Give the backbone structure.
Amino acid sequence: MQIQKSFSQQTVGTLFLVATPIGNLQDMSNRAVTTLSEVDVIAAEDTRHTQLLLNHFDIHTKKTALHEHNWQEKAPLLVQDLLAGQSIAQVSDAGLPSISDPGKELVAQAIAAGIPVVPIPGASAGITALIASGLVPQPFYFHGFLPRKKTEQIQEIQTLAVRPETLIFYEAPHRLKATIANFLEVCGPDRQLVLARELTKRYEEFLRGTTAELLAWFEENQARGEFVLMVSGASPADQKLITAGDADQETDTSDLPVAQAVQALVESGQKPNQAIKQVAKDREMNRQEVYKIYHQIEEDHG
C-alpha cells in the first residue's frame, strides 16, 4: 500500500500532470500557467506544438520531448531527474496527459519510485463532449480510439455495442464515415449517435441522430476537424438485436464447405485461427485437419 501526501515537504521532485486547452486558449487555468512557469522542465508530446502555447502565455521553461516513440528510453531518465529533486510538468498536445495520449508510462514509473504525482485539471474532449451530447451522461464508458482495420474494428464494436453505458470514442476525420458504417452494420440503423466537432473552437458543432442519419450526412458532407463520437448505451432490445445477429452469423456457415465456412467467419471479423477453431468445434473435426483444408495444404504421403 502506498499513501501520497501531494504537498508535504519531500526530498524528491514532483511530477505535475498539466491539462492544456483542447482548442480555446482561454480554457487554460491560472494554476496551469503558474505550474508550467515554475517547474524545472516541461515534458511535452510535441515540443513544437507546446512552444506555441508557451509563447502565448510568456512561459520560458525548458522543454524536453516525451512521446510514444521515445518513452522507453526517456521516462527512466526523467524519473532520475525527479529523484534528484527536479520538478517536471508533463503535457500532451491537448487535454489531459494519459487520456488517449502519452503519459501513463512516466506516471507509473514515478509512482513506483515513490515520487508524488499531482494532477492539474482542465479540459478533456471526451467529458466536454459528453455533457452537451444529450445522451445519458452516467454511467459512461470511455474507449478512445478503435482499431483501424475493418475486421478488428467490427469485432471490437460487437463487444462494446452491447454495453448499457454511453460509449465515448475518438476518431480521425478521414476514418469517421467508415467507422459509423461499421456501427450501423453491428447496431442497426436506429442507434442514437452524437458527433462533437472542433470542441471549444470557432466552428464547434454537434451532430445528433441515428446511425443511418449520420451515415447519410457523410454521403453529402466531408468530415473536417477533430471529432468525439458518442454512442447511446444498449437497451435490452439493442442487446437482443446484436446477440441475434451474432447467432445468425454463426449458423450461416453450417451449410458451407469447410474452407468457405472458415473464410466467412474471417470476413465477419474473426481472426483465421479463431475461425478455424470454431469450425472444427462446430463440426467435431480435428483442428489441424480444418487448418489444412482452409490453407489447401495436402498431406505428404512420402
Q: What stands out?
A: Residues 236-251 form the longest helix (16 residues).
